[in-house]
Amino acid sequence: MLGFGLSIEPQLWALIFVMIRIGATFIAAPVFGNVSVPVTVRVTLSGAIGFLVLAAHPIVPPQQIFAVSTILSAAAEALVGLALGFVLQISFAAPMIAAEVIGGAMGLGFASSIDPQNGKSSPALGQFFSIMLTLLFLSVDGHLILIDLIVRSYDVLPPGAAWIGIERLKAIAFFGGYAFLAGLLLALPVGFLLLCLNIVVGMLSRAAPALNLFAVGLPASLAVGVVTLAIAFPTMGDYMLVIVREGLSATENLVLG
């Protein structure tokens, strides 16, 4: 079919074509897209899931490899995969926003470390939230749900007609606002108390100008922030589960409409 005279070639080409969407999803999705996950592991998982897709769906790849229609079909597959992973990545950005709000109020904005999600420097508190959200995502089998959505996406968006419509792109854009809303709600318990503390410290600095503001305000902010985080973290953990479910729900809506 494609030349070279090999009988296994059509099946191999079909598997490679299916792996485009799956691999693009793993590049953009959290957990799978971590820089700590080797490329070999991603390719192996893409191939294994590709076998499942070929067994469940009669995928017919383009007849010619080097053709404009084939390039457009591959671009459409990559777009669908990136969209699936990007929606989940948006929900994983909410803890980073919450960490920026809380860390700035606590005076921990200078404390940063390498985030295993993307390999870049991020606030230490944000890395802690990100790890907790990843553990919650795995605890509710979010990775298995994502794989199931990838396989089911071939029913709704089959190869050859996989361009995402305007309505789906609009839904992705509007879901981006949810990351800011969820981040602010996640930081609300701690951020509100720190705001009240800053107001009190500001009143004290006006009442007693000779008072060393940094000697009093910074230790108080750190102490109140740590205690409030310890008290409010069970509630914050429950809301992180809500964030995970909202991200999976948005991904399902993207696939099923």
TrEMBL record:
Membrane topology category: Multi-pass membrane protein
User: Subcellular localization, per the record?
Assistant: Cell membrane; Bacterial flagellum basal body
The keyword Cell membrane is annotated on this UniProt entry: yes
By its UniProt entry, which Pfam families does this protein fall under? Bac_export_1
Which ranges does the record mark as transmembrane? 12-32, 39-59, 65-88, 95-114, 126-151, 172-201, 213-233
Has keyword Zinc? Answer: no
Keywords from UniProt, A to Z, are: Bacterial flagellum, Cell membrane, Cell projection, Cilium, Flagellum, Membrane, Transmembrane, Transmembrane helix
Q: InterPro entries, from UniProt?
A: FliR, T3SS_IM_R
Q: Where mainly found? A: membrane
Q: Check the record and name the PANTHER family matching this protein.
A: FLAGELLAR BIOSYNTHETIC PROTEIN FLIR
Record's family? Answer: Belongs to the FliR/MopE/SpaR family.
Q: What does this protein do?
A: Role in flagellar biosynthesis.
Q: Can you name this protein?
A: Flagellar biosynthetic protein FliR
Q: What is the lineage of its organism?
A: Bacteria, Pseudomonadati, Pseudomonadota, Alphaproteobacteria, Sphingomonadales
Gene designation: fliR
